[in-house]
């Protein structure tokens, strides 16, 4: 299978070709491996290749994606017998003994596992730059980040190594890489996709798995593969009346869409991100939808605090688990991770509980918004992709962090009000995505705009809980009105 042929098909089309016998699964896998060998040296998207095993992997021939290659994210998407490091030296010896529910269902769908993609340590950053794996790079401009934390997956799919790749989203980690790499990325509702069996819920229910991909239909079909509860799941959501792939092919009807471009945290939003939303709003009006500038009424700074508190608690627990299971020591964690862990261990428990309870405030505010509107439209990110290394902690702040760690000054930091500043600094570039995570609602990034320099800019749509079908319908309508697949041709010979 010629490289140009392989790059011209999405996962659904490749599955059709294999099913008809026009090409073999091995030929498709060889084309994917060849593409990986050509481009990964410049992108550093794949951290654990398993090319030889992929060529020999059996799969159910009646699966919807039988023989189609996929990459798994090196975070939570555990595959029996293969390392899953979470981007951390502390978990570099973690080799799960059983598949996660995501991998089990992907395997049953016939997908062939090509390896694992890089992530920042514990998925904590909106860039994919870990001390373990080094920086992953954006195929549209390799001086820039592909985003995070599913940045390795985003880069790999945009560059054509695989038509879709595993991702997960606890604060924007599907949607941010989708926006930065010109892909479609849907974060499903809480309870739609099981996090089992290794965990009941991911990030206190804020995180969920899915994929980044090039076409809406691949996302819909993969959601059909992954959706549904597993035994013992804490969250369950009613199954749709018809498949998401079938729903996607239906008209969304006339929608009322609330549009906003200002950051919930009052941070700066790049003109290109605003322009992408405004351009999309005009297109929506042309398609017959009603558009009104309006935003959900909630306390943005409170949301930032709540989100950062989630970080503190989850990181602290992850570090403790790594110490207990793998004998990890402080030197096995990155400096910023150690600081977050300290803040988690010293955060008063009543404060954590109160902030967790505040999630309901945001859900109620968003519910009131959806009483008036069907969807919201906003930028996916507040800024264009950062330069590689731009988000590194400056040397003087690293010194301060080491001093705080040495003094065990976590309680002092909490009392000083510095947490607010940390929240703003950590979320300033990506202020629009966390709302969907804390409320458990679905949201998607759609590649609607490219800058004059050729960089993709995603826009975000959000819906009420369980509203993935409506999002996919609108996405399919926009994909037809403003096709983006041809843009990937520019990357074919870019490496």
List the helices and strands and how they pair.
Elements: H1 3-7, H2 11-20, H3 25-43, E1 46-49, H4 51-56, E2 69-73, H5 101-108, E3 112-117, E4 129-130, E5 134-135, H6 151-158, E6 164-169, H7 175-181, E7 184-187, E8 208-213, H8 216-226, H9 244-248, E9 256-259, H10 271-286, E10 290-293, H11 300-326, H12 335-346, H13 349-370, E11 375-379, H14 395-407, H15 410-416, H16 418-427, H17 434-439, E12 443-450, E13 456-462, H18 468-481
Parallel strand pairs: 2-3, 9-10, 9-11
Antiparallel strand pairs: 1-3, 4-5, 6-8, 7-8, 7-12, 11-13, 12-13
Summarize this structure briefly.
By secondary structure, the chain is α+β, with helices and mostly antiparallel strands. It has helices at 3-7, 11-20, 25-43, 51-56, 101-108, 151-158, 175-181, 216-226, 244-248, 271-286, 300-326, 335-346, 349-370, 395-407, 410-416, 418-427, 434-439, 468-481; strands spanning 46-49, 69-73, 112-117, 129-130, 134-135, 164-169, 184-187, 208-213, 256-259, 290-293, 375-379, 443-450, 456-462.
Largest sheet descriptor = 8 strands, mixed
Q: What structural category do the secondary elements indicate? A: alpha+beta
Uncertain stretches: none
The CATH level-2 architecture of the largest domain is identified as Alpha-Beta Complex
CATH homologous superfamily of the largest domain?
Answer: Amidase signature (AS) domain
Helix content, binned percent: 40-55%
Can you tell me the CATH class of the largest domain? Alpha Beta
Shape: globular
- Computed over alpha carbons, the radius of gyration is 21 Å
Q: What's the total helix number?
A: 18
Number of domains: 2
- Report how far the terminal alpha carbons are from each other: 19 Å
* CATH fold name of the largest domain: Amidase signature (AS) enzymes
Q: How many β-strand runs?
A: 13
Strand order of the largest sheet: 6-8-7-12-13-11-9-10
Strand content: 5-15%
Mean pLDDT: 95
């Amino acid at each position: 299978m010629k490289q140009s042929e392989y790059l011209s098909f999405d996962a659904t089309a490749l599955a059709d070709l294999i099913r008809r016998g026009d090409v073999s699964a091995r030929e498709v896998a060889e084309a994917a491996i060849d593409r990986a060998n050509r481009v990964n040296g410049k992108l550093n998207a794949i951290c654990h290749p398993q090319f030889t095993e992929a060529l020999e992997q059996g799969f159910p021939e009646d699966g919807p994606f039988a023989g189609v290659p996929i990459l798994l994210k090196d975070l939570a998407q555990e595959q029996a017998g293969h390392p899953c490091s979470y981007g951390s030296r502390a978990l570099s010896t973690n080799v799960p003994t059983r598949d996660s529910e995501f991998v089990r269902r992907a395997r049953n769908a016939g997908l062939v596992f090509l390896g694992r993609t890089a992530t920042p340590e514990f998925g904590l950053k909106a860039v994919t730059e870990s001390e373990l794996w080094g920086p992953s790079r954006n195929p549209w401009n390799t001086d820039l980040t592909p985003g995070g934390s599913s940045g390795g997956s985003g880069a790999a799919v945009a560059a054509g190594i695989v038509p879709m790749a595993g991702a997960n989203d606890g604060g924007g980690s599907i949607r941010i890489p989708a926006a930065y790499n010109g892909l479609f990325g849907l974060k499903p509702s809480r309870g739609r996709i099981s996090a089992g069996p290794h965990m009941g819920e991911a990030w206190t229910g804020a995180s969920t798995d899915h994929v980044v991909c090039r076409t809406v239909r691949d996302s819909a079909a993969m959601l059909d593969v992954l959706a549904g509860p597993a035994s013992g799941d804490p969250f369950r959501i009613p199954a749709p009346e018809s498949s998401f792939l079938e729903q996607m092919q239906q008209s969304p009807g006339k929608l009322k869409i609330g549009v906003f471009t200002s950051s919930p945290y009052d941070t700066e939003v790049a003109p290109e991100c605003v322009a992408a939303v405004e351009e999309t709003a005009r297109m929506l009006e042309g398609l017959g939808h009603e558009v009104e500038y309006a935003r959900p009424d909630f306390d943005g700074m409170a949301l930032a605090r709540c989100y950062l508190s989630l970080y503190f608690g989850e990181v602290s627990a992850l570090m403790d688990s790594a110490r207990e299971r793998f004998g990890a020591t402080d030197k096995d964690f990155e400096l910023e991770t150690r600081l977050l862990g300290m803040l988690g261990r010293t955060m008063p428990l009543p404060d954590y509980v109160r902030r967790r309870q505040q999630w309901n405030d945001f859900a109620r505010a968003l519910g009131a918004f959806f009483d008036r509107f069907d969807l919201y439209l906003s930028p996916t990110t507040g800024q264009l992709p950062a330069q590689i290394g731009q988000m590194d902690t400056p040397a003087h702040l690293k010194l301060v962090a080491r001093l705080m760690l040495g003094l065990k000054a976590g309680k002092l930091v909490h009392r000083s009000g510095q947490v607010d500043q940390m929240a703003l600094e950590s979320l300033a570039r990506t202020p629009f995505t966390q709302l969907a995570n804390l409320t458990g609602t679905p949201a998607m990034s759609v590649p609607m705009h490219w800058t004059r320099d050729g960089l993709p800019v995603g826009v975000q749509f959000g819906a009420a809980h369980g509203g993935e079908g409506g999002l996919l319908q609108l996405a399919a309508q926009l994909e037809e009105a403003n096709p983006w697949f041809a843009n990937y041709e520019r990357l074919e010979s870019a490496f």
